[in-house]
Protein 1
Amino acid sequence: ESTRLVEKQREIDSSAVAYPNNIPLAFEEGKGATLRDADGNTFIDLFGGIGVLNVGHSNPYVMEAVHEQADRIVHTVDFPSEARLELIEKLDEIAPGELAGDNRVIFGGPTGSDAIEAAIKLAKYNTGGTGLIAFRGAYHGPTSGPMSLTSNKKFKGHYTPLLPDVVHAPYPYPFRQGKTEDEAVKDALEEVRAIVEDPYGGLANPAGIFAEPIQGEGGVVVPPEGFLEGLREIADDNALPLVFDEIQSGLGRSGEWFACEHYDVTPDAMTMAKALGGVGFPLSATMYREELDTWGPGDHAGTYRGHVVAMRAGTRAIEYIQAHDLLAHARELGEYLRARLREAGEENELLAEVRGKGLFIGAEFAEDGEPVDETVDEIQRYCYEHGVLVWTAGRHGSILRLLPPLVLTDELAETAMDVVCEAIEHATP
Ligand code: PMP
């Protein structure tokens, strides 16, 4: 039945729809960290809807509020509602560093891209600048603004010209750059400083610096200590807003509420989406320092920022993570998953590096330093055939990426990792 649905979809749906590794999957039901396909097969979900389902599929605590809210009202545009105010307060409670107690939140439309668009406009509005600094390997979304900040030409090659005045600096990625952590950080920061301060740096009138505190699509690239701190310094020295894209890394994924907390660096603005809608409801938000709240009514608009069902779901999801101490669970389970991956790597010389924080995990495959994507495809397919869903990342698809729901239990994690490790051990070296 899954095959029939996929074939039917291929026939009538847009050709732009991508099927990972051509795996014929159609889901009928999700519970916690498990999924059932249209043929009744059960899978352990280690990809969580690309990092959306932090509290698990159809989490009952969230769904209770969803049903109750949906029966009353779904859409309130920008008019106030308990659901909206409650979520703003909840986000303030978990806001990182100096943003706590000193922030405003603007909800976006349904996608992460909306939050990025808002952050771009906020930076331009406040600085009068036009130029944006982003990073190689960055992914910020499929609409024009975020695509401009995205570095991979595969995503934007057909759609230029995009925003003018975007310069991509290197993101420290010691493994791929063949550098030590210190060198990678130093070189990246020197470039950023040059782009901003050197008359030959390429950006005449900068408006802001945009970075993922851990790159997701780029390959779960965890920057070494010193990088985000350095960006903070450059932003401060030049009175530029520092914007962190926490769309994939935020809301508990990394074992802290936000990935920037691992580095003790607070951005001036921060984007959220994915897990913000609780169990997959579309919702995004940009949180920024109160001082940047200089714009007036209508300076950034949007029909869909009053999705009160999504807001209720978001608040309940945060409450659920708090009540079950899922940040600590993510940290512990993440250690276990990475340890298992490293162990499996001893049997497969192509597994070159295991990275990540919390349940934001990547395993990079390479041969003589060159990316190997076929091996990762093979692993993904083997896992699928044995009931475990995993994802990939990186510009060459050579990183096996795990983004399981934070509610993944120790038992399910063990069962799933038995399969993933078997897949790695069996994959063609
Ligand atoms: N930023 C980051 C870091 C992301 O990972 C993504 C999606 N993978 C986006 C932005 C874009 O979000 P959306 O697809 O909801 O527009």
Protein 2
Amino acid sequence: QETNDSTPEAVNIDVNVDVVVVGAGFSGLYMLHRLRQLGFSVRVLEAAGDVGGTWYWNRYPGARCDIPTTDYTYSFDPELEKAWVWSEKYATQPEILRYAQFVAERYDLRRDIDFDTRVVAARWDDAAARWHLRTDTGQHIACQFYVMASGCLSLPKTPDITGAERFKGEVYFTSRWPHDGVDFTGKRVAVIGTGSSGIQSIPHIARQASQLTVFQRTPNFSIPAGNGPVRPERRAPLEADREGYRHEARWSRAGVPNERTQIYGRYSTREVHRERFSAAWQSGELIPILSVFADQILFRDANAVVARMVHEKIREIVRDPQVAELLCPTDHAFGTKRPCLDTDYYATFNLPHVRLVDLRRHPIQSITETGIALADESMDFDAIVYATGFDAMTGAIVSVDIAGRDGLTLKQKWAHGPLTYLGLMTVGFPNLFTITGPGSPSVLSNMMVSIEQHVDWIADCLVRLRADGMAMIEPTQAAEAGWATHVNDCADITLYPTADSWYMGANVPGKPRGFLPYVGGVDAYRGACDEVAASDYLGFRRS
Ligand code: FAD
């Protein structure tokens, strides 16, 4: 029988398992598969109606991955790799969602997942050494280990624009797109936001709308994706030696095999600048354009070489010089915000029915019943599309009311910025793991590689605890403080902290400013995690 008292002792437990995993995106699916194989009882709780996470929610037109799909794919089972062939260099959202569903079916994962179930609270019971979770469906679930596989980019930012609720027309969020699509034919459409989702969807919306107005606060760097069939030079090394290729990815800097350059922008000639930039631009891939020069993320002068050449490209494509200037990012160094990959984004602004509004010069005063009012102009729209991004990396985690030892909540603990050891655990919250959490390479990497690494590390850790007859694991204060210092030191030698980016938490009003992911590289990070595990979980207390 249910009681209203939420203390762990006072409620009846509906489900009691070894591990609860929150989220059925790529992290949660693989975590479930691994743990079940290892003989743990597992329950996955997922707010969505099906598997897929990011690829379940973000169904906006033009949604695609921006890491080549030959790399953005699970590698844990060679048979799975053989069973699935990606159709394009960058797969569309429907194809990636089908892949997640294919994986769920292949390993019979859905039977251990509760869909349409949001975890709202979690409380650590120190005496029993168990977590107690509460869901919005009224379930109480107890578990020994609790894994937040809740996604780095899964909690949409609520638009902080006056009057947003007043608009009587159609309203869409790129991150919560209707499942049966939207037809904008003949409609006057506003898109607010020019991050990755805006940049991917704007050309598609422009093809249908009778009028499209794009509201831009900050221009972002974007390079053409050059999408199409998977290129032979990508497919060949993979097919020749799949295991070798995957090994190289795991020990690469960003989770995609890429030759590391020793060429410094500040010491190279203009010819070298052009040659290297052109090759990266032509590749239509993020990792090459982010590593044209070894020093581009370290020094402003080297960075400016790349930024200038992107500006030149924008000016070549966009015919109206004033619009071109508005589209050239000048407020942040190249790469300090995640650059976007696009198909015809800049060229879309050459279309006569597409207009760009610079919100820095003409801020929105309010949304009205019929449209958008600027200080000097009012515009009517049939539909408003918000492409306004996410409360990244920490948002989904602290949106659950998680109380650890002594009742301290994670939100309170992280009020001045997240503190973790290896991005995996945090002091005061025993047996709670985060996948691709703050302090890990996460969003700076090919996430598939980072997800697999975290899942494998956690699975190995639980197996070791079981083998050693231990029930609890928690980092030490010293290890956590040391990791925080290291994460900050690595960020501080780069230009990353100079940008008002979501990596810095700067897109969410009131969020503490600090560089959230670990910039030291997937390879260095994997080495650190392996070393910790090999030295009897150095930096963790186990009991
Ligand atoms: P998610 O896929 O975000 O899944 C988390 C799940 O947890 C969600 O389904 C959510 O509903 C659920 N959840 C969260 N909180 C709760 C709760 N309290 N209770 C119950 N359920 C909850 N990464 C790349 O490496 N390459 C790319 O090309 C790339 N493209 C992207 C494009 C878009 C549009 C976006 C938004 C992200 C992209 N990413 C990309 C990052 C992407 O999020 C990861 O690659 C990956 O899909 C994350 O998987 P995940 O399982 O960790 O998290």
Protein 3
Amino acid sequence: NNKIVFPELFFTDKNLVGRDVLKISRNLSDLKGIFADAEAFERMPQNQLAYEVSSFLPEKEGTPGGLYFGITYLYPGKVGNEYMMTKGHYHANVDRAEFYWGLEGEGMLILMDGQRNVWAEHVFPGSLHYIPGGVAHRMANTGSSLFSFAACWPSDAGHNYAEIAENGFSARLMEVNGVPHLI
Ligand code: M6P
Ligand code: ZN
């Protein structure tokens, strides 16, 4: 397929830990509970590929001062009227920040601060998004083609999925009259 290729790894440091690109994929079954329309979700094939993440993790997880890089390939689709999206997370080290930037296709970055205020930013090829510490983040594919974005985050950020799994985001990105609305 023609999706954006991962950058060529080019470095001279012989001591880097993660020398290879780590690839993970998430099926619909990995996203159980995050969509509003549970019945529509159950009717969909649970082994359907939702997104893939390729990452380069040159430092040991938890290393202060190091950086990680990843590309997420989020497939198009909807569950009911809700756009296909990533699980979303706060960072385990809650004050750690992150950059996201758009590569191909289009989507929305959904953000939620510690007071559960939610807002969203339009993501498109070339757009750059700064996610401050303490802000939960999730991407939604609002287009009809593959949505790919890159990310750079600290190697001591970690992922806190539990908070989102329990309480979700306080707004959802739904298609209303053909356009995305934060509801
Ligand atoms: C980006 C980064 C990763 C994250 C991935 C998928 O590449 O933020 O840390 O794992 O998106 O998002 P999630 O972990 O919320 O499914
Ligand atoms: Zn993150």
